[in-house]
Predict the structure.
Amino acid sequence: MFNYCVDPASLEGLTWLSCYLTTGKHMGLYWSFLTVLALLAITAPTALLFGFAGATAARSHVGPLRWIGKIYISVVRGVPDIAFFLFFVIALDQGFEWIRHQILCPDWPDPIRQGNDFIVCQQAKLPLSTSPQWVHEVYGFFVAALTFAIVFGAFAANVLYGAMRAVPKAQLETAEAFGMSRAQSFRRILVPQMWLYALPGLSNLWMILIKATPLLFLLGVEDIVYWARELGGTKQARFTEYPHGDWRAIYFFGLLVFYLCFTRVSEIVLEKVNRRLLKGQATIGGAP
Protein backbone atom coordinates (compact mmCIF):
# COMPACT_ATOMS: atom_id res chain seq x y z
CA MET A 1 0.00 0.00 0.00
CA PHE A 2 2.75 2.44 0.99
CA ASN A 3 6.04 3.00 -0.84
CA TYR A 4 8.12 2.06 2.19
CA CYS A 5 6.47 -1.38 2.35
CA VAL A 6 8.68 -2.79 -0.43
CA ASP A 7 11.01 -4.57 2.02
CA PRO A 8 8.98 -5.78 5.05
CA ALA A 9 12.10 -7.29 6.66
CA SER A 10 13.55 -3.80 7.17
CA LEU A 11 10.46 -2.46 8.94
CA GLU A 12 9.64 -2.31 12.62
CA GLY A 13 7.22 -0.69 15.04
CA LEU A 14 4.30 1.35 13.71
CA THR A 15 5.78 1.37 10.22
CA TRP A 16 5.65 -2.44 10.15
CA LEU A 17 2.11 -2.37 11.55
CA SER A 18 0.91 0.15 8.94
CA CYS A 19 2.21 -2.06 6.16
CA TYR A 20 0.84 -5.21 7.78
CA LEU A 21 -2.68 -3.77 8.13
CA THR A 22 -2.80 -2.70 4.48
CA THR A 23 -1.95 -6.02 2.84
CA GLY A 24 -4.24 -7.59 0.29
CA LYS A 25 -5.65 -10.05 2.81
CA HIS A 26 -6.49 -7.24 5.20
CA MET A 27 -8.34 -5.53 2.38
CA GLY A 28 -10.38 -8.72 2.18
CA LEU A 29 -11.08 -8.40 5.91
CA TYR A 30 -12.26 -4.81 5.51
CA TRP A 31 -14.47 -5.73 2.56
CA SER A 32 -15.96 -8.57 4.59
CA PHE A 33 -17.46 -6.01 6.98
CA LEU A 34 -19.39 -4.65 3.99
CA THR A 35 -20.43 -8.23 3.21
CA VAL A 36 -21.99 -8.56 6.66
CA LEU A 37 -23.75 -5.19 6.35
CA ALA A 38 -25.00 -6.12 2.87
CA LEU A 39 -26.34 -9.41 4.23
CA LEU A 40 -28.28 -7.58 6.94
CA ALA A 41 -29.57 -4.95 4.49
CA ILE A 42 -30.88 -7.66 2.14
CA THR A 43 -31.98 -10.28 4.65
CA ALA A 44 -33.95 -8.05 7.05
CA PRO A 45 -36.57 -6.76 4.57
CA THR A 46 -36.70 -10.07 2.71
CA ALA A 47 -37.25 -12.01 5.95
CA LEU A 48 -39.95 -9.49 6.87
CA LEU A 49 -41.71 -10.20 3.57
CA PHE A 50 -41.50 -13.95 4.19
CA GLY A 51 -42.75 -13.36 7.72
CA PHE A 52 -45.67 -11.20 6.63
CA ALA A 53 -46.67 -13.77 4.00
CA GLY A 54 -46.39 -16.59 6.53
CA ALA A 55 -48.37 -14.75 9.22
CA THR A 56 -51.09 -13.75 6.72
CA ALA A 57 -51.33 -17.33 5.49
CA ALA A 58 -51.47 -18.69 9.07
CA ARG A 59 -54.55 -16.57 9.85
CA SER A 60 -56.22 -17.20 6.50
CA HIS A 61 -59.76 -18.59 6.35
CA VAL A 62 -58.66 -20.88 3.52
CA GLY A 63 -57.68 -24.21 5.10
CA PRO A 64 -54.74 -25.29 2.88
CA LEU A 65 -53.24 -21.81 2.96
CA ARG A 66 -53.57 -21.68 6.75
CA TRP A 67 -51.88 -25.08 7.07
CA ILE A 68 -48.99 -23.98 4.87
CA GLY A 69 -48.45 -20.87 7.00
CA LYS A 70 -48.55 -22.75 10.29
CA ILE A 71 -46.33 -25.57 9.02
CA TYR A 72 -43.77 -23.03 7.78
CA ILE A 73 -43.71 -21.33 11.17
CA SER A 74 -43.63 -24.52 13.22
CA VAL A 75 -41.13 -26.55 11.20
CA VAL A 76 -38.49 -23.85 10.77
CA ARG A 77 -38.79 -22.72 14.39
CA GLY A 78 -38.64 -26.29 15.68
CA VAL A 79 -35.40 -27.36 13.96
CA PRO A 80 -31.93 -26.06 14.94
CA ASP A 81 -30.90 -23.11 12.78
CA ILE A 82 -27.62 -24.64 11.68
CA ALA A 83 -29.43 -27.68 10.26
CA PHE A 84 -31.68 -25.49 8.13
CA PHE A 85 -28.82 -23.24 7.06
CA LEU A 86 -26.85 -26.22 5.75
CA PHE A 87 -29.97 -27.83 4.27
CA PHE A 88 -31.32 -24.80 2.39
CA VAL A 89 -27.99 -23.94 0.82
CA ILE A 90 -27.83 -27.40 -0.77
CA ALA A 91 -31.56 -27.59 -1.53
CA LEU A 92 -31.73 -24.13 -3.15
CA ASP A 93 -28.61 -24.74 -5.22
CA GLN A 94 -29.90 -28.08 -6.50
CA GLY A 95 -33.39 -26.66 -7.01
CA PHE A 96 -32.11 -23.84 -9.21
CA GLU A 97 -29.97 -26.25 -11.23
CA TRP A 98 -32.89 -28.68 -11.62
CA ILE A 99 -35.12 -25.93 -13.05
CA ARG A 100 -32.39 -24.83 -15.47
CA HIS A 101 -31.78 -28.47 -16.42
CA GLN A 102 -35.46 -28.98 -17.32
CA ILE A 103 -35.42 -25.86 -19.51
CA LEU A 104 -31.98 -26.08 -21.13
CA CYS A 105 -31.58 -29.84 -21.45
CA PRO A 106 -35.04 -31.35 -22.03
CA ASP A 107 -33.58 -34.30 -24.00
CA TRP A 108 -31.12 -35.36 -21.27
CA PRO A 109 -31.30 -39.19 -21.26
CA ASP A 110 -29.74 -39.95 -17.86
CA PRO A 111 -31.44 -39.57 -14.47
CA ILE A 112 -30.42 -36.53 -12.43
CA ARG A 113 -30.24 -38.56 -9.25
CA GLN A 114 -27.59 -41.24 -9.57
CA GLY A 115 -27.17 -42.71 -6.12
CA ASN A 116 -25.90 -39.90 -3.89
CA ASP A 117 -24.82 -37.81 -6.88
CA PHE A 118 -26.81 -34.92 -8.35
CA ILE A 119 -25.81 -34.62 -12.00
CA VAL A 120 -27.18 -32.05 -14.45
CA CYS A 121 -25.94 -30.92 -17.85
CA GLN A 122 -23.10 -28.42 -17.97
CA GLN A 123 -25.37 -25.63 -19.25
CA ALA A 124 -27.54 -25.93 -16.14
CA LYS A 125 -24.71 -25.55 -13.65
CA LEU A 126 -24.89 -22.55 -11.34
CA PRO A 127 -22.67 -20.75 -11.74
CA LEU A 128 -21.06 -21.94 -14.95
CA SER A 129 -17.53 -23.31 -14.68
CA THR A 130 -16.41 -20.65 -17.16
CA SER A 131 -17.80 -17.81 -15.04
CA PRO A 132 -15.31 -15.46 -13.37
CA GLN A 133 -14.59 -15.78 -9.67
CA TRP A 134 -16.75 -12.81 -8.68
CA VAL A 135 -19.81 -14.55 -10.16
CA HIS A 136 -19.19 -17.59 -7.94
CA GLU A 137 -18.84 -15.32 -4.91
CA VAL A 138 -21.99 -13.33 -5.69
CA TYR A 139 -23.99 -16.50 -6.28
CA GLY A 140 -22.79 -17.99 -2.99
CA PHE A 141 -23.72 -14.79 -1.18
CA PHE A 142 -27.16 -14.76 -2.85
CA VAL A 143 -27.93 -18.33 -1.78
CA ALA A 144 -26.73 -17.58 1.76
CA ALA A 145 -28.86 -14.42 1.98
CA LEU A 146 -31.94 -16.28 0.70
CA THR A 147 -31.32 -19.01 3.30
CA PHE A 148 -31.12 -16.42 6.07
CA ALA A 149 -34.35 -14.83 4.83
CA ILE A 150 -36.25 -18.13 4.79
CA VAL A 151 -35.11 -19.16 8.27
CA PHE A 152 -35.59 -15.79 9.96
CA GLY A 153 -38.78 -15.22 7.99
CA ALA A 154 -40.35 -18.05 10.01
CA PHE A 155 -39.45 -16.31 13.27
CA ALA A 156 -40.76 -13.01 11.89
CA ALA A 157 -43.98 -14.79 10.86
CA ASN A 158 -44.49 -16.00 14.41
CA VAL A 159 -43.97 -12.48 15.78
CA LEU A 160 -46.32 -10.89 13.24
CA TYR A 161 -48.93 -13.60 13.74
CA GLY A 162 -48.98 -12.87 17.46
CA ALA A 163 -49.10 -9.12 16.79
CA MET A 164 -52.08 -9.54 14.47
CA ARG A 165 -53.92 -11.47 17.16
CA ALA A 166 -53.08 -8.76 19.71
CA VAL A 167 -54.97 -6.07 17.80
CA PRO A 168 -58.38 -5.71 19.54
CA LYS A 169 -60.97 -7.68 17.63
CA ALA A 170 -63.57 -5.02 18.40
CA GLN A 171 -61.75 -2.58 16.11
CA LEU A 172 -62.02 -4.96 13.18
CA GLU A 173 -65.69 -5.58 13.93
CA THR A 174 -66.29 -1.83 14.08
CA ALA A 175 -64.55 -1.36 10.72
CA GLU A 176 -66.77 -4.01 9.17
CA ALA A 177 -69.83 -2.41 10.77
CA PHE A 178 -68.93 0.84 8.97
CA GLY A 179 -68.99 -1.02 5.67
CA MET A 180 -65.37 -2.04 5.20
CA SER A 181 -64.70 -5.37 3.59
CA ARG A 182 -62.47 -7.92 5.31
CA ALA A 183 -59.60 -6.99 3.02
CA GLN A 184 -60.06 -3.28 3.73
CA SER A 185 -60.14 -3.75 7.50
CA PHE A 186 -57.04 -5.93 7.23
CA ARG A 187 -55.20 -3.32 5.18
CA ARG A 188 -56.39 -0.16 6.96
CA ILE A 189 -56.89 -1.29 10.56
CA LEU A 190 -55.04 -4.51 11.33
CA VAL A 191 -51.75 -4.00 9.49
CA PRO A 192 -51.05 -0.41 10.67
CA GLN A 193 -51.74 -1.30 14.31
CA MET A 194 -50.00 -4.64 14.47
CA TRP A 195 -46.58 -2.96 14.18
CA LEU A 196 -47.07 -1.51 17.67
CA TYR A 197 -47.21 -5.02 19.09
CA ALA A 198 -44.68 -6.54 16.68
CA LEU A 199 -41.82 -4.08 17.12
CA PRO A 200 -40.43 -5.49 20.43
CA GLY A 201 -40.32 -9.01 18.99
CA LEU A 202 -38.88 -7.81 15.68
CA SER A 203 -36.25 -5.83 17.59
CA ASN A 204 -35.12 -8.99 19.36
CA LEU A 205 -35.14 -10.83 16.04
CA TRP A 206 -32.92 -8.14 14.52
CA MET A 207 -30.40 -8.63 17.34
CA ILE A 208 -30.45 -12.39 16.80
CA LEU A 209 -29.93 -11.86 13.07
CA ILE A 210 -26.88 -9.70 13.76
CA LYS A 211 -25.42 -12.40 16.01
CA ALA A 212 -26.15 -15.07 13.38
CA THR A 213 -24.09 -13.40 10.62
CA PRO A 214 -20.94 -15.43 11.54
CA LEU A 215 -22.81 -18.44 10.14
CA LEU A 216 -21.79 -17.07 6.73
CA PHE A 217 -18.42 -18.65 7.51
CA LEU A 218 -20.06 -22.08 7.64
CA LEU A 219 -21.90 -21.42 4.37
CA GLY A 220 -18.67 -20.89 2.45
CA VAL A 221 -18.77 -17.07 2.33
CA GLU A 222 -15.56 -15.28 3.25
CA ASP A 223 -16.92 -13.13 6.06
CA ILE A 224 -15.18 -11.40 8.97
CA VAL A 225 -14.93 -14.64 10.99
CA TYR A 226 -13.15 -16.36 8.10
CA TRP A 227 -10.63 -13.54 7.73
CA ALA A 228 -10.12 -13.18 11.49
CA ARG A 229 -9.19 -16.84 11.72
CA GLU A 230 -7.11 -16.69 8.55
CA LEU A 231 -5.14 -13.57 9.52
CA GLY A 232 -4.89 -14.30 13.23
CA GLY A 233 -3.36 -17.76 12.87
CA THR A 234 0.34 -18.23 13.43
CA LYS A 235 2.39 -16.97 10.47
CA GLN A 236 6.01 -18.03 10.10
CA ALA A 237 8.57 -16.27 7.96
CA ARG A 238 8.50 -18.90 5.22
CA PHE A 239 4.73 -18.49 4.81
CA THR A 240 4.35 -14.71 4.80
CA GLU A 241 6.24 -11.47 4.53
CA TYR A 242 4.80 -10.37 7.88
CA PRO A 243 5.43 -13.23 10.35
CA HIS A 244 3.70 -13.16 13.74
CA GLY A 245 2.49 -15.46 16.47
CA ASP A 246 -1.04 -16.62 17.19
CA TRP A 247 -3.03 -13.38 17.11
CA ARG A 248 -6.49 -14.91 16.80
CA ALA A 249 -7.48 -13.61 20.23
CA ILE A 250 -6.73 -10.07 19.07
CA TYR A 251 -8.70 -10.41 15.84
CA PHE A 252 -11.69 -12.02 17.54
CA PHE A 253 -11.61 -9.34 20.23
CA GLY A 254 -11.92 -6.82 17.39
CA LEU A 255 -14.99 -8.69 16.15
CA LEU A 256 -16.39 -8.60 19.69
CA VAL A 257 -16.03 -4.82 19.79
CA PHE A 258 -17.59 -4.49 16.32
CA TYR A 259 -20.67 -6.54 17.21
CA LEU A 260 -21.12 -4.82 20.58
CA CYS A 261 -20.97 -1.37 18.96
CA PHE A 262 -23.30 -2.43 16.15
CA THR A 263 -25.89 -3.90 18.51
CA ARG A 264 -25.70 -0.82 20.74
CA VAL A 265 -26.39 1.49 17.79
CA SER A 266 -29.27 -0.80 16.80
CA GLU A 267 -30.72 -0.59 20.30
CA ILE A 268 -30.66 3.20 20.22
CA VAL A 269 -32.34 3.39 16.80
CA LEU A 270 -34.98 0.78 17.67
CA GLU A 271 -35.77 2.53 20.96
CA LYS A 272 -36.39 5.80 19.12
CA VAL A 273 -38.62 4.04 16.58
CA ASN A 274 -40.51 2.33 19.39
CA ARG A 275 -41.11 5.61 21.24
CA ARG A 276 -42.32 7.25 18.06
CA LEU A 277 -44.78 4.47 17.30
CA LEU A 278 -46.11 4.37 20.85
CA LYS A 279 -46.55 8.12 21.14
CA GLY A 280 -50.21 8.83 21.92
CA GLN A 281 -51.19 5.17 21.77
CA ALA A 282 -53.43 3.68 24.44
CA THR A 283 -51.05 0.87 25.34
CA ILE A 284 -49.08 0.03 28.44
CA GLY A 285 -45.92 1.29 26.75
CA GLY A 286 -47.51 4.44 25.40
CA ALA A 287 -49.65 5.52 28.34
CA PRO A 288 -46.81 7.11 30.38
About this structure: The radius of gyration is 25 Å.
